[in-house]
Amino acid sequence: MPRRNTVHEQPLPDRTLVIDNGAYSIKAGFAHPLPTLEDCHVIPNCLARERDKKIWVGAEVDECRDFGEMSFRRPVEKGYLVNWEAEKAIWDSSFLSPKSKLNCDPHDANLILTEAPNTPVALQTNTDQVVFEEYGFATYSRHIGCCLPAKESLCCSLSITPGPSLNAYHDIQHFFSAPARNSHTPAVPTECLLVIDSGFSHSTVTPLYNGRPIQQAIRRLDIGGKLLTNYLKELLSIRHYNLMNEEHLVNEAKEKISFVSNDFRGGLEQTWQGIVSDNGTKRENDGREIIIDYVLPDYNTGSKGYLRPHDPSLAARMKKRGAMADPGGIVEDFMTLGNERFAVPELLFSPMDVGMKEAGLPETVLQSLSGLPQGLWPAMLANILVIGGNALIDGFMERLELEFRQLAPAECMVRAARAPDPIKSTWLGGAYLAADRTALKAVQVTKQEYLEHGSGWVSRIFAKSATR
Q: Per DSSP, what are the bridge partners of residue 71?
């Protein structure tokens, strides 16, 4: 009888590095027994080149003061990590540099890493090879951003993806004003949860059952913050200044000026005709001022861009040969913005406005629910968690919940909550997982196992199609 190879089980290292490798930024930090958002560090996930050809890597971008005509190279495209050459330079600077706050020895650390749903197998294999062969992490696991086995009968009927996700480890009911759970109680995934992740490169809708994604109901919308920024660049370049090479400037402006209107057509009419307040400012029905002035940043003085109320008479006096000076005599450039403020984020709800043949985010959620038994609809609609940077747009949650109520069956209660920090939410879910050593050990693969069985076996383990 052939001798069976035995692998001596080794204890997990004490340190666990959790990395949410997003398209716009990396959210990373070491897990603690009682993790908090303050333990998470946000690192720009890009290589940036100035006009004078100087290169800024990862966290170094935060130290830059002149973003004029700066070009960016991002390792993550359409949500997938496709450029490990650039990503490795960012990871080396962020996790191996002695000056970094997250400096660690990979050989003595566990790694929890996120990936997008339905990542191609070839890209998953590349990631596994880099993690174990290039960095040599002691143990490692991939997650799609929430993790206990689902019931076997439901797994068979719903094609539940065994690979764990991270956001289900949150105290979801506390987001809906329920009392918070005891901090010493182990985090148990929510039974039914619908996660809407609207980030930089795309938006996804993922139904979770006992923390496991239901594969056939996952839906993707190829609209995210990057497309919104590019659309705003085009609008501003046509109506104001040529800003096609000013990605950073326009992205900052988008984050400051954008809001989602509950009445898009009415907002357009008010922009042109105007509901005029006592001081002559056009306002939306909810009292929000539509037309504002955005003062552009001055990289020579270090001043940042900012909003101010629009005063037509003052703007006319200040305007002179395309350059403007405020009453103190300081030269400044500004743009008077109107419907650009709500027309740009409207793409998340009406992609057809720019000719994209895709459903908006509310319709995408209904498409996702159509892949589930109707018996699960009430529980999913009552537990909607919204994460990602786009969730921070003013009015986004109100519009989303309004459209859900219009589209959902009348007998279903609709509750949608934005995570307290939608950008760091996935990282915090991973930190909750890492705090439970038993749950962590169940999902991690060791370097020894990888070297013995290979990357194909590791992929099958993460997919639960193979056993240890």
A: 49
- pLDDT number for residue 285: 46
pLDDT tens per residue, range 248-260: 999 999 999 999 9
189 touches 208 (CB < 8 A): yes
Q: Model confidence at 302, in pLDDT bands (50, 70, 90)?
A: confident
CA distance 409 to 404: 9
CA distance 14 to 392: 35
- Pick the closest to residue 309 from 329, 283, 328 (CA basis): 283
At 278 the pLDDT is 40
* 336: pLDDT strictly greater than 80: yes
DSSP at 319: E
**Which 8-state DSSP code applies to residue 89?**
H
One-letter amino acid of 60: E
* Burial 391-428, CB ≥16 within 10 A → b, else e: bbbbbbbebbbebbeeebeeebebebbbbebbbbbbbb
d(CA 364, CA 370): 10
DSSP state at residue 433: H
Nearest Cα residue to 426 out of 103, 106, 142, 133:
142
Please give the pLDDT value at position 270: 80
Q: What is the DSSP string of 342-379?
A: HHTGGGGT-GGGGT--S--HHHHHHHHHTTS-GGGHHH
Of 238, 207, 466, give the one whose Cα is nearest residue 337. 238
Indicate the pairing of strand 331-332 with strand 212-213. Answer: unpaired
- Predicted local confidence at residue 153, as pLDDT: 33
3 state DSSP class of 458: helix
* Crossing angle for the helix pair 225-239 and 247-257, to the nearest 10 degrees: 100
pLDDT in tens, 439-456: 889 889 999 999 999 888
Decide: 275 and 266 in contact? Cβ < 8 Å: no
Q: What CA–CA distance (Å, rounded) separates 209 from 82? A: 30
**Buried residues in 85-118 as b, exposed as e (16+ CB within 10 A):** ebbebbbebbbeeeebebebebeebbbbbbbbbe
| 457 phi, psi to nearest 5 deg | -65, -40
pTM of the model: 0.86
Query: What is the total residue count of the chain?
Result: 468
The structure tokens listed for 346 are 């409207």
Q: Is the sign of the CA dihedral 426, 429, 434, 439 positive or negative?
A: negative
Spatial separation of the C-alpha atoms in residues 172 and 380, rounded to whole Å: 12
What is the mean predicted confidence (pLDDT) over 37-53? 94
